[in-house]
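TODO from last week: model Acetylornithine aminotransferase.
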Amino acid sequence: MENLVEMGKEYIFNNYGRIPKVIVKGEGSYVWDSEGKKYLDFVAGIAVNNLGHCPKELVEAIKEQAEKLLHCSNLYWIEPQIKLAKKLVENSIFDKVFFCNSGAEANEAAIKLARKWGNGRYEIITMEKSFHGRTLATLGATGQEKFHKDFLPKVDGFLHVPFGDVEKLKNTIGPKTCAVLLEVIQGEGGVNVPNEEYLKEVEKICKDNNLLFIIDEVQTGMGRTGKRFAYENFDLNPDIISLAKGLGGGLPIGAILAKDEIANVFKPGDHGSTFGGNPLVTSGSLAICEKIFDDKFMQEVVDKGEYFRGKLNSLKEKYACIKKVKGLGLMIGCDIDINAQDIVNLCFEKGLIINGIAGQTLRFVPPLTATIKEIDLAIEILDEAFGEV
């Protein structure tokens, strides 16, 4: 393992703060490192492995497609791409789908679509503490200065307002504004959940001012919150949503979904992707959708999320450093008044993988297939970790 880590340091860019372990195998809610140690993975590739590691449905779909067609360009129609688009449309309020390879690419596509639709209007209002990607445009959309500082000047056309502040949003709209882009639950910003009234008011402001209402569902989509898409929790009617992460279950895929009148603004040559909607990844994604777009499965996610938050609230009563438990479904945050990374490191040593964000928030995004027994094990390890700090 040490040789591999040293080899990685020699040959790979140093732009990730990596734990010096090599993960070599995954199954269900667990991963193993190169030394044979087993970990309960409650990060799931950062909300990617929604059906766990190497789910049978996904593996079989990949194997079958790999023997038929790995790739062909979007100069032709692609069967699994068409079937996946149909599945996404039938399970949402949208009419058309554009496929790409990641969440940042999906948000880039949404930004370009909004700008063309704006017909001269190009400014997009986003939220403070938001995260929309690491490309230059999506970095500009991201409302966190720590991501901007070394890559200035920012791409023009993005204005940031406080998440939850309706009046500030109203006062920021100008003659060049074409859209509002937000996450209904801010993931990287700290698992921040607004109230439904705020989100409904944002939607109304968009309609009243002829602005597109765009929701970044890269992290919240694909069942993560106990609904197919998080906008359903708040009875919202967005014009565009972006997807990635759980859409592929481990395969690189992104997408935007839009209403017909918006989608039709794009014409041949306006936007594209060499690998977007690739036969292999869309075959895998279709298998993921078949499982996730099931009402019984979604209710299980809701129930497990409530159970998990209840257990975390029990720990909150026991440890004064735990200040707040928040989230929806199996997208859960836990605010603490100590360094989150200290708890993350202790849990890792004890065989639990979790994530620290925004300095003092623990993030839990386990596989949606995680069992009650596995949630109990996570709580047991967290209890031990908090008892040691």
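Done. The mean pLDDT is 98.
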